[in-house]
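During the no-cost extension, the postdoctoral fellow (Dr. R.K.) reprocessed legacy sequence entries with the updated structure-token encoder. One reprocessed record is reproduced below for audit purposes.
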Amino acid sequence: MMHIILRTRIHKLLAAAAPVDRVLIKGWVRTRRDSKTFSFLEINDGSALANIQVIAEEHLENYEEIKRLTTGSAVAVIGAVRESPGKGQKWEIAAESVTIYQIAPDTYPLQKKRHSDEFLRTIGHLRPRTNKYGAAFRIRSELAFAIHRFFHDRGFVYVHTPIITGSDCEGAGEMFCVTTLTPEGLREKEFPGFYEQDFFGKKVNLTVSGQLAAEMFALALGDVYTFGPTFRAENSHTSRHAAEFWMVEPEMAFCDLEENMDGAEALIKYLVGHIRENCAEDLALFSSFVDKSLPDTLESITANTFIRLPYEEAVRILTASGQRFDYEIAYGRDLQTEHERFLAETHFKQPVIIYNYPRQIKPFYMRVNDDGKTVAAMDVIVPRIGEIIGGSQREERSDMLELRMRETGLEPSEYWWYLDSRRYGSVPHSGYGLGFERMLMLVTGISNIRDVIPFPRTPGTIEF
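Re-encoded structure tokens follow.
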């Protein structure tokens, strides 16, 4: 009877407490060096930052072919896990057999040296094979798991909201139009009835937020969250913006602005703590080679209560700082990244929550405060990133909501279903949006959003 050996992932072997008689691993050769009677192979299968060393001795049937293995070649190894006499590694595998799937040609672009981020973006299909990007995307996976765990443990219901929508949540109009009409037909769009010919019979777009739909479920199920892709047709080339990105958007019924800020702070602290506890090896890479201040930044987030101050006070601090900024500071203007980072990195040296913004610079759905001038909005600002969360208490009064729609140029009749939620059992409720990629930038120290998205979509870039 044939004995089947199940494949073991390398991260489990590296954590083994004792030798193992016989294992099967499959992966890619990182390096190979030869001795007189054997070859050392460094194998990685993507499950961990570290490689495992394989000793392939000359008695193996295909030893001459093994000596031709190059960086990037794919193999399967059966052998015994034993203690390694070499430094820097606990275990190694004495190969019983080495099956070669493919020998990579010498043109393989990822040789054993450091490559620039700019170069690696040109080979986005291969960059996950590097140490840095393998670590980044393992952390991305763990971060997504932690988000679901955070909300699940607190009784939230996970809701899938539409990607194709007829609503503009932010009122900015920077949306991607979705159409089935031919390019010839698109040239006729100035004619009446153009969108009536389209698939949905009206103009539709890719969503910029799942918030409006999530609110409908919060007003039925209590606490919900959505976690998925969103899209902005904004011609921005900054290191913090992409055309396609992921958002985490919880909505809570019977929740005011204060409770909303409490929830946002708790989420950030939980996620940072989870990654520090569960991704220590990968984080060490970023602390050593990307941002040496990363451990202190993450420690300050988990150890300190976030500062909370009204927008008006933030403007006063910035104005009195004597700091020169590229963008003018004035009450009634939205804060720019340089202003936010000054507050979090220089003035307070820890995360800050700014709240109660002027009514005229915020979207229609944010609750108007009793002063009539501000809305119950809040932004969470963290070092190195700036804004990482934006949220608000939602406007629960139907008459005020309709007024705000008209103020911001929206036609209330197109949002009849949204207004219905304020006519039937309306309650105070709140929510926020966490930029998933910005959260990943925070915990890794990576400074460009293009490097935390597997295949970034930015203006002029649609490769892979």
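The CA atoms of residues 3 and 237 lie 56 Å apart. The first helix runs from residue 10 to 14. The remaining legacy entries will be reprocessed before the final report is submitted.
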